Structure formats: C-alpha cells, structure tokens
Amino acid sequence: MSAIIAGTYNSRDTGGIPLTAGGSTRPGVLYRSDALAGTTDDGIKTLTASPIGTIVDFRTDMEKAGLPNRVGTQRPFTAVELPLLQGAFTSMPSAADVDETAMREIFARIPTLADLYIQMLGSAAGTFAEVARLVARPADDTYGGVLVHCTAGKDRTGVAVALLLDAAGADRDAVIADYALSETNLAGAWADLMLTRLEAWGVPLIPAITDLVTATPPEAIKAAFGWLDERGGSARYLCDGGLSDADLGALRERIAG
Q1: What is the pTM of this model?
Q2: Does the keyword Hydrolase apply (predicted)?
Q3: Which fold has domain 12-86+98-256?
C-alpha cells in the first residue's frame, strides 16, 4: 500500500476496516501517518483537498526540532500537540559516550515493543482519551477528519489508532493487520535512513534496536490488547482516561456509522 500523502511513507485512511457487527469503518474520519515534515507540494494538495481538519502530533520537542510539519497555507489545520515519550527514539547513547560495560547494561534494558506499548498504555490514558474526543466531536463539519501521527507512525500512532478502532467495534484481526502494515510501508528508504542515522551515532544495530525502529510484529499489538482486555477492554480504558459515555457513543458513530 502506497502512502496517500506524497512525501510521507506510512500515511493512510483507516476507512474500510471490517466491523465485528458487519460493514466497515467510515473513510474520511481517522487518518494515520508518519511525520509530515517531508510533505511535497502534491502532498499538501492532498491534505488541502481532504476532510482532515485536525492534526494530532505525538512527537516530543526534540523530535520536532528542525522538522516542523509541512501542511501548506491554503487552508488552516488545527494542530494538537500531545507528546508521548514512549516510542520517541531520541536519547540512545552512542558507543563513544559510555564504556562497553555500561553499554551492555543499557542494551539489556531495552524494552520489547510489547513492553513499550504496555508502558505507554499504563501512562497515557488521558492522552488517548483526548484523541478519542477529537475524533468524536469534530469542531468543523466540513473538515472533521483527524490525522494522528508521530515520527514513524507505527508505535504511538499504532497504539492510538488500534485502541480507537477497537473501541469503535472494528474487527480485531483487521485492526492487527492494519497495525502490521506499517512495517511494510516503512521498509526500504525510510528504514534505511533511520538505521544509517543510528549507525552514524555509534549505536550498534542489534535486533532489539532494529525492531524498535522498524518493526510492527502482530504479537506486540496483541500483547497490548491482552493488557487492555484484562482491564475491561479498550472502551473501558478510554472512559477510565476521562472519555465520557456520550463521547464514546459519538466516537463509535463517527468511526462505525
């Protein structure tokens, strides 16, 4: 699947995903992407012509430094900054900064993606509930679509989108497949660029690191769903994070119709 916004690698509309009750999710409501810093002129035209009105950015200030989103000036977009530290790959020390023993200790503590997602869910319920509210209650009827992104569009974005789709009644196997698609989309130029950058920083490309940067194994998001199920499910989680029952109903109406 090619990106729908030129200049990105991992952008797509989540419309068309099967629902457990039959039918499919509505297009033009919830979009996902990697960062928009490289959006081309054609990509800006796509954004301008789309129903997207709100862009949620999970990146930290360090990630955004020198890499602002490029969305054009043809019409305004509402930018919502909800930085999430988990998944932000910005502070890995280089081999030149620490000795070999310390480096081994650091790498021994690198979380798996499953662990990372569970840590994220454990600390960011309020953030994810806010994203759900933005989707449920668009400020503009004409431009009611919400685009969610981080740097790669696979971890913070992947968890957020999976959570919202699951709460809205999307078929879980289909949600997992959408999550896993990011690895395919990012393979090649994007992955090569990121791994080359890490090598330049002196970071050894051991499997634990390359997986964090480039992979979206189904087992990782399944583990996140397992954690949610143990606590009452995705909808309960969002409500515990501050989403009202009315907004949950509106979210389901917006995504599932």
Answers
A1: 0.92
A2: yes
A3: Protein-Tyrosine Phosphatase; Chain A (3.90.190)
